[in-house]
Fold each of these.
Amino acid sequence: MPFRRHIPVQLSPYRGESPGAGHNGGPALDLSWEAWLWRRAHAQAWKPPHREISLHRMRRAERLGLDYKAYAGVLMNRGTHLGAAIFLLEGLSAHELAHAAKKIASISDCAIFASVSDPAVADAALAQRADLHVLAGDERATSRAIDRFILRHRLTPSGTFMVGTAHAHLRTAEDCGLALFLWAGDYFNAPSN
């Protein structure tokens, strides 16, 4: 084996003195006013909500077809309730598309955008419930259609989640700034509530 030179890695630009005798090696105590405010706000934000609020969030998550953890996570991270769903259904078989259309049609209290590769296979209930978009295969065209949908319904990207089937859909969700991305297999195969 060739001789390898050991190069020390420095993760922090701070080179403090080594701790003296009696030090437990833990981080320095931050007793500043800003740190106290941050700890207090963090504790209040992650305090379990009241029972009625938890039940309301759970019912809302069920209406959207989500689990409580995903819905509450978006609420805590983005600070907004989910009010729109985007479904990119490219690559699903006819049977999977029929199952997806049935679940999408059962979603209430939400604006829905659905993109399919062939409008002939779109279910009538899906066409009635959702704003349909024929997938052109271009990510930019899909992003522009999603942006128009959000503007038309006076929504925000942080209050919208996407269900997709490909990594390109994940990139589209990130580019549009959507709050949550779920894989179609996980969303449609989850036990219905």
Amino acid sequence: MGRHGVAEVLTGAIVLVVALAFLAFAVAHSGRTAGSGYTLQARFDRIDGLNIGGDVRIAGVKVGTVTDEYIDPKTFSAVVTLSVRNGLELPKDTGASITSESLLGGKYISLSPGGDETNLKPGQMITITQSSVSLEELLGKFIFSVTSLNGGKSGQGQQGGDQSQGSAQQGAQGSAGGGALAPLSK
């Protein structure tokens, strides 16, 4: 039995080394960099779906990450701190918007550089922002508007149907009462 136990321990050790090698490879190639860059802040009304560690992109190219997010207790707006790659000088009128990666994916911050002559300094606030759009809210508004439009149309069709049923009933009563119906002319 001693020999059987040694084989199990060796197999377990090999599996553990292989797992650690996979973990090291995954961390090294994850695309996440630690704090190389300068920080900026942006204030948004909503940041639904934006997480710490999310991408900051310009023209679809990753140039930084979201490092912190918190609520301003005075204005109750969300303040996002982001790290932008060193050497990337952003104009003071740069805009920041929260954009969806896909219908089911996460969100990221898209920066749109402006044309101002002065640049943002580390720690400054990006003042031109566009908040996150809630897909659920948009879908709810769309469904509500479609049902309210259909509700108005079906009510008109129902009234027209009631009127046609009323004339058919009058015609049936007229013929049952002994009155003759006039033939239709072509």
Amino acid sequence: MVKAEEQARKLAAFATLMLIGAAEALAQENRAQAGRRIVVSIPDRSLAVIESGRVVKVYPAAVGAAATPSPSGTYRVIQRVPNPTWYTKGRIVPPGKSNPLGTRWMGLSLKGYGIHGTNSPTSIGQNASHGCIRMYNRDVEELFELVAIGDPVDLYGERTAELESVFGVSGGQGQAGAAQPMRGGMAAGQ
């Protein structure tokens, strides 16, 4: 009888932990503001945060190299990891100055791709990554605080009129974006 009661208590504790974890994940997903999204212009090598149709901030970025291009499409932020560990074939790099992911990782709904910092700041503004979106560590730390699980991330492989309203006619590569209204809006996945 005592053993059954102990097992019931362990099961109840486990169920409570699972409910707490599910509630935390749901709360974090609900924090994703309906009007907030991240827009990445691969040709401009820039990333913008847009809230309610207004450009909040534009950051310079590195995108995929010719051999390993960044994908186009609409994805979601599904993971937020401060001080990530980098795992690659036969090698593990703990958090720190030599970590290629820098100080933050925001995983996308496309497995293996994300937005992250870097240990190679000279790569920013270049086509240099394995398909991920790299940012200066100070910028990715700021972005990390603005973004929630569930936020949409639109990656555009070609310039459009809508991108011009965000990044400028000649591309806003790395220019700080003042809050500006978007003309015409952007449809997800264009």
Amino acid sequence: MKTTRLRGAAMALALTFALAGHADAAPASRASLEALFQLMHAQTMIDSVYDAMQKATSQMMAQDASKRGESVARQQIEAKGRDDAMALVRSEFNWSVMESEMIDAYQQNFTEEEVTAMINFYATPAGQATITKLPQLMQTVMASTQAHMQALMPRIRAISEKANADAAAADSAR
């Protein structure tokens, strides 16, 4: 019993020192984060994410609209609306807007030592391969997610229709 308490106290003390050491660590500098983001090809990665999102969303919505029997004209109008919305997002929320927010977020969450370790990794061939292959990885994951969501759409639609019917019934019962 005494040994268990002693171990618990030792672990608590070790955790306190570990956390205190991390709290005293210097936050990442702006210069190191800019270097990290450059190695990560952050601007290109953001563009790739938007491209993948737009492609996946367009495919999913087109398939769903086709299953609902919507006209080609309606599908084209909806597609243009989605494209216009994505163009707005891209113009207003691009890397030049995001960079300072990302620097703040990284400074709140990473120490200079941690960012230096990331820089060292991303400067290696394996790190650059990770960055290069990440957009394709994301597309693969999005395609898988899209397939799952497409399979769920009829059930989601049924839940929504039931909720609407129940709400209408509740309104008429007043």
